[in-house]
From TrEMBL, chain A:
Belongs to the SufE family. It comes from Oceanihabitans sediminis. PANTHER family: SUFE-LIKE PROTEIN 2, CHLOROPLASTIC, SULFUR ACCEPTOR PROTEIN CSDE. InterPro entries: Fe-S_metab-assoc_dom (IPR003808). This is SufE family protein. Residues 11-130 form the Fe-S metabolism associated domain. Pfam families: SufE. It comes from the Bacteria.
TrEMBL record, chain B:
It comes from the Bacteria. It catalyses: (sulfur carrier)-H + L-cysteine = (sulfur carrier)-SH + L-alanine. This is Cysteine desulfurase. The keyword Transferase applies. One of its GO terms (biological process) is cysteine metabolic process. Belongs to the class-V pyridoxal-phosphate-dependent aminotransferase family. Csd subfamily.
Amino acid sequence: MTIQEIQNEIIEEFSMFEDWEERYQYMIDLGKSLPLIQEQYKTEDNIIKGCQSKVWVHAEMQDDKVVFTADSDAIITKGIIAILIRVFSKQHPKDIIAADTDFIDEIGLKEHLSPTRANGLVSMIKQLKMYAIAYQTQLS
Amino acid sequence: MFDTDKIRKDFPILSREVNGKPLVYFDNAATSQTPKQVIDVIVDYYSNFNANIHRGVHTLSQEATDKYEAARHTIQKHFNAKHAHEIIYTAGTTNSINLVANGFASLLEKGDEIIVSALEHHSNIVPWQMLCEKTGAVLKVIPMNQNGELLMEEYDKLLNENTKLVFVNHISNALGTINPIKEIIDKAHKHGAAVLIDGAQSCPHIKPDVQALDVDFYVASAHKMCGPTGVGMLYGKEEWLNKLPPYQGGGEMIAEVSFEKTTYAGLPHKFEAGTPNICGGIAFGAAIDYMNTIGFETIANYEHELLEYATKKLLEIEGLKIYGTAKNKTSVVSFNLEGIHPYDVGTILDKMGIAVRTGHHCAQPIMDYFKIPGTIRASFAFYNTKQEIDALVEGVKKAQRMLS
């Protein structure tokens, strides 16, 4: 699936929730269930320090696609990471570079990507794009 | 009888909704809300008196100057400073601390010692570290115990003839501990050291008497005590303020200027370069008047009641731990739920219209001491109610259900 198709799928899933509680419960469950990163990659080098929560990101190339794994010490942050990974991982670098995150607005989670939130997610998205740019350079 | 219903009507913001729920504002230690008596003063200033002060001969400038200087007298009286010129307007507590730290750069030598406490806000750590880097002075730290109380016998051991400065907050922002500042000041003075007390957290709850304390410097922000942001004050003993060099150069702070030599203005203008926050200063005075009308003793008693009620109710929640259990503390409850990140709890509470602060509260050394990433901090003001605390307790229980 393309990034756009995955985003549309997520928007559709979220449209079924009736209130914030269902939406957040879904994210919390996502955050709980996913093995997001191997312990060996939870290093100082891979850490993005938010003021509030920490985020770890690891990237590697498989064939011509970037595979991201990530984690956070806060569970709601982790739930959002799970959504971001679903969108951006296993995609071609040039598609990752071109993609936006407007769908986060549409699923009612916009406030988590506010810089004042200091949860590391804004930096995380920047980091995903940086990895994609680096891999794209290697490919071309 | 303390009439919270009546008081709450003074604060327009308290009747708004957040995320479809009535706002419960428990982030008072970060900034307090503003009563209409202060908002009116701000509107009145820009509607009727806005002009640059001190140098104008025209009527507006005269009126604005009178109001600004009258507010300085209000602040002087409130803190019981000996002279009005011992009150320096600043942009806030951090600015006040930096002014003093910068001034001491020329008074310290290599090997001199500065003492801070383990309970400090970053704003009362970093400027002194920078000062130490500049001068070669050494930073020493008064440790604390598990309750978040300073170990005074350790303080005694740190003091010696090399101690030049001691900096302690009156009340810890992260834990609410009220520090024994009179004892700290008296002991420092026996060794000839100057003392700066950070009053950012105490001024909303306590009326400090700088002469009775015999403190050398006392600093505060208006926005923690019902005033606007971007304005605060530095109290300094006259002799100390005369010793410190100016902080910033510019207009207002000079006596005479030529390209060969500039002579500085006297106190307080020496430290007030440029056009100040005139409206802010006037509103600061109005905020102090407002709080004094209610009365600090009344405020302290009522807030203590809120603290005891919240502590009791929160501790009924299984797996909830309170950090900062000093005997002498103000209306701040810092806590965590076992196995749950504070950020997650804060997020869920926000969805329910409850404003708390989560994170390290700009006091990372305290969080490191407890080996936690941060806490959830609920801080209460005199306009809060027990019903709001009930809403917090329900919110925390719900967050716990959702997150565990």
